[in-house]
Design the sequence.
């Protein structure tokens, strides 16, 4: 999949290629690589049905599946699924009526995942897992068919990250979401590090800054971006690299709704005010908005942050006061 847009990455494919990354992780599938391991914590109850061979070659910087709030019957895609640990965890959460797809380009990793999937299926008592060979920039999944896309420290391995976000948006359903754990650099990684194949494979050279990551997500029409800095992973050449977990939602306005009708949105705090799409919302003061904006603020992206009042119904939507933030 090619992308010649202005948002394509600065990195040149002549320096780092997909084959370089593939070779690096083919070896990692055979022999565990300590320099790829980050302090990822899994709930032990999520691992009870997973063979030990899988946990021994699980590389990443976070556990997005454990934070995803997966529900029975949902469809999830894990990018760069490796030995399959996050897919196997998700399979338990989505249940027999759900579906989990793991996408990886490395034959050795796919072989391990598929072999162990047989035992996981026996342990769970149902089969809802499929592993497919594919690339982050060209995901072998149908349009608008997925509830959740996850990845664990693999977006940084792509040399065309804009194409990755474009593909994630393509396969997600309306109101679908991504939850990505990845390495974020405090500053732009210098060119001399970007051409270092070993550092690229170790998730260093391809790391984005937080602004670059959010720009890619925003440019591909993701809303409700929620950010959590987890920990400082390591420092290389006086540059700090952090583990972040970032969530975003695909929202497409329902144009079948009448756009002439107005409703009101009341921001619930905790800040004195927030600005959303150019409109300022002071805390506790109803602001008149159109029906399209009301649908967005009522979606999963902003759930619990605004009280939406429809004059024709004269009853505010229920608000969750346990958490409230906005971007």
Sequence:
């Amino acid at each position: 999949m090619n992308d010649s847009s202005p948002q394509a990455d600065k990195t040149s494919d002549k320096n780092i290629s997909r084959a370089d990354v593939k070779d690096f992780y083919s070896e990692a599938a055979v022999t565990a690589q300590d320099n790829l391991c980050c302090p990822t914590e899994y709930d032990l109850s999520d691992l009870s049905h997973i063979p030990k061979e899988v946990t021994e070659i699980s590389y990443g910087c976070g556990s997005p599946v454990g934070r995803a709030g997966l529900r029975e019957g949902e469809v999830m895609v894990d990018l760069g699924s490796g030995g399959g640990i996050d897919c196997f965890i998700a399979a338990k959460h989505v249940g027999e009526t759900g579906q989990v797809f793991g996408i990886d380009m490395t034959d050795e990793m796919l072989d391990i995942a598929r072999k162990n999937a047989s035992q996981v299926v026996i342990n769970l008592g149902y089969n809802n897992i499929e592993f497919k060979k594919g690339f982050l920039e060209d995901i072998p999944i149908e349009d608008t068919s997925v509830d959740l896309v996850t990845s664990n420290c693999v977006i940084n391995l792509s040399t065309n990250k804009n194409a990755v976000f474009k593909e994630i948006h393509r396969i997600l359903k309306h109101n679908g979401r991504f939850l990505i754990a990845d390495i974020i650099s405090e500053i732009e990684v210098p060119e001399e590090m970007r051409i270092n194949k070993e550092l690229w494979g170790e998730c260093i050279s391809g790391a984005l800054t937080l602004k670059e990551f959010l720009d890619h997500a925003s440019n591909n029409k993701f809303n409700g971006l929620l950010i959590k800095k987890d920990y400082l992973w390591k420092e290389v050449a006086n540059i700090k690299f952090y583990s972040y977990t970032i969530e975003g939602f695909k929202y497409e306005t329902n144009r079948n709704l009448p756009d002439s009708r107005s409703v009101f949105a009341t921001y619930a705090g905790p800040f004195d005010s927030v600005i959303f799409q150019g409109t300022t919302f002071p805390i506790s003061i109803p602001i008149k908005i159109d029906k399209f904006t009301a649908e967005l603020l009522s979606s999963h992206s902003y759930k619990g942050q605004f009280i939406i009042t429809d004059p024709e119904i004269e009853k505010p939507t229920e608000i969750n006061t346990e958490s409230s933030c906005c971007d």
Notes: DSSP finds eleven helices and 14 strands in the chain.
